[in-house]
Amino acid sequence: MANTAIELVNVSVTVNHAPLLKNVSAGIPKGKITALIGPNGAGKTTLILAILGIIPHEGEIFFLRDGRRETTRPRIGYVPQRLDFDRGLPLTVLDFLTLSSQRRPLWLGYQQAKRDKALEALREIGVEHLSERQIGRLSGGELQRVMLAMAISREPEILLLDEPAAGVDVSGEALFCEFMTRVQREGRLTMVIVSHDLSVVTGHAEHVICLNRTVQCQGGAPEVLTPENIMAVYGPHAGLYRHGQDTCIHPLHHK
Amino acid sequence: MESLFATIYSFLDTVLPFAWAASLFMKRAFLEIMLITPLCAIVGIQVVNSRMAFFSDAISHSAFTGIALGLLLSINPLLTMVVFGVLVALGIAKFKTRSDLPMDTIIGVFFAATIAMGIAIISARKGLTQALSSFLYGDVLTIAEMEIAVTFALFAVILIFIALSYNRLLLTGINEPLARSQDIPVNIYNYIFAIILAVVVTMGIRTIGILLITALLIVPPASARNVSRNVRQMFWYSLFFAWVSGIAGLVISFYTDIATGASIILTASLCFLLTFIISLVRR
After folding, report:
1. B185 belongs to a structural domain
2. pLDDT at A224
């Protein structure tokens, strides 16, 4: 228990009488990278939204501090799979990052400390050069990285990433892998990654939860990621291949 | 309060030594416009960024029923207009959290129901039609000192709220789930903003009228969006275009006998056209 950051007890989500999640019970280890895998419609994003408290659920979600169960959420960084927003909005990347951290209205300018912190987060993800660009003019990959920078600028205890590699180009993917490796090395952040991308899972995840409305299997990555389990979750056409000398393994996407 | 206004009028005589600003009713209209136009612009920025123009239109049209109710029940129609507008805004906001219907459908239902209710009241009591017409087109030239004082108080309270919550409101408008994930109490902000919007819209009706108040909310921020590159510029340009439209509209109406509300919105629309051309040239 002391090594668990989030404990899910019989979590169920029903929307319009349709069960999206049913009795999900799982533990997410502290300071490690947990991959949430499963086919389309398995309820991966729904589980992330339930952890965030955005979607109502039955059952209990506990956040553990010093082994004690608490229902108040710690600081969570979240990167959604896709950000739907008004692309014509005159909002720079730096505006976007300071929106949630700064109380002084942005029309009175940035607070120096908040501005520095936002720039530091952008630098960490390798997108400092985008700070003055309007967010509506970013590519999908650039936006993902900016959102990752926004999430880490909150100095979260838990980071939830929903399909972080989707739409990211090759250089973006390399930066993302570098970030994951660093997080793994430091071991301070509890990270949950939703991914279809088995390369991210095999390359970085230390813990894996296979989901298909309910938990199919969970445990340490080497034990869970067996060909039998992958076939049971994704079907017979999933596979993996290594790409060049990269530290990351790239996927043969499940069709 | 009388001596305060006397001081303000004498100050205006010094800084605005023009024929259009000579009479007392024009000074009052000027003061009201100096307050209500930026107030509408500040609230309008969020309306534009959160795509709430139809919501604001429904509230302004609900004022029609609020006024009719006030006249029918012999209560001050300005009061019933504001209260009814707030109730409609809260009703829409509540429905939004409980229904899977698209937002514009929910607003459309409220819009139709409140207008039908207003028509039902005035058709049953024929004498009310005359009293309603000044609210349809607005009548800033008959504004009273007490109304200016109320607008000033409103301006101060809303400015404080907006200053404290501007960034969070903006993030909520950009994407609600993202705002929720950052521990922003989205529902509370939405309700408070709905109340503020209802109060500003119904207060602005005295100046601009039911038919045009939404335009005063959205046209200056829309013009600002055409030429802004960041949040700060959008805010200040919105205020600038709102003031320019308000004062130019008042002066034009003095010299041409056009209804003040209409001339303000025509000036604001001209600003929009010019800024739109600038945005095309910049591309």
Report:
1. yes
2. 82
Positive or negative CA dihedral for B98, B103, B104, B105? negative
Q: Which residues pair with A13 in a beta bridge?
A: A21
Is B52 a member of any domain? yes
Is the separation of the CB atoms in A247 and A177 below 8 Å? yes
Q: At B94, is the secondary structure helix, strand, or coil?
A: helix
Q: Which CATH number is B73's domain given?
A: 1.10.3470.10
Pick from A53, A98, A134: CB nearest B229: A134
Neighbouring C-beta atoms of residue A129, cutoff 10 Å = 10
Does the beta-carbon distance from A99 to B171 stay under 8 Å? yes
Q: How far apart are CA A228 and CA B85, in angstroms?
A: 62
Q: What angle do CA A108, A113, A118 make, to 5 degrees?
A: 90
Alpha-carbon distance of B261 to B250, in angstroms, equals 8
How is residue B166 written in tokens? 């501007």
Does residue B9 belong to any structural domain of this protein? no
Query: How many CA atoms lie within 13 Å of A143's alpha carbon, on the beta-carbon side?
Result: 18
Tens-place pLDDT, residues A106-143: 999 999 999 999 999 999 888 999 999 999 999 888 89
Tokens of A213: 């409305």
How high is the mean pLDDT of chain A?
A: 84
Does residue B276 fall inside a structural domain? no
Q: Which chain A residue has the Cα nearest residue B171?
A: A99
For the segment B250-264, the average pLDDT, to the nearest whole number, is: 94
Residue-range definition of the domain harbouring residue B68: 28-211
Domain count of the fold of chain B? 1
* A79, closest residue in chain B (CA to CA): B178
> Domains in chain A, please, with CATH?
4-74+158-252 (3.40.50.300), 92-156 (no CATH)
Neighbour count for residue A178 (Cβ, 10 Å): 15
At A15, give phi and psi (nearest 5°).
Answer: -125, 125
Rounded-to-integer distance, Cα A206 and Cα B12, Å: 72
Quick check: A243 pLDDT over 70?
Answer: no
d(CA B282, CA B278): 6
ipTM above 0.95, yes or no: no
Question: pLDDT value at position A170?
Answer: 65
R_g of chain A, CA atoms, integer Å: 18
Taking residues A170-191, what's their average pLDDT? Answer: 77
**Residue A18 touches partner B, C-beta closer than 8 Å:** no
Give the Cβ contact number of residue B59 at 10 Å. Answer: 32
CA distances from A195 to A83, A121, A142 (A): 17, 23, 18
Judge: A83–B178 Cβ closer than 8 Å, yes or no: yes
Q: How far is A237 from chain B (nearest CA, A)?
A: 34
Q: Shortest Cα distance from B220 to chain A (angstroms)?
A: 15
pLDDT at A250: 41
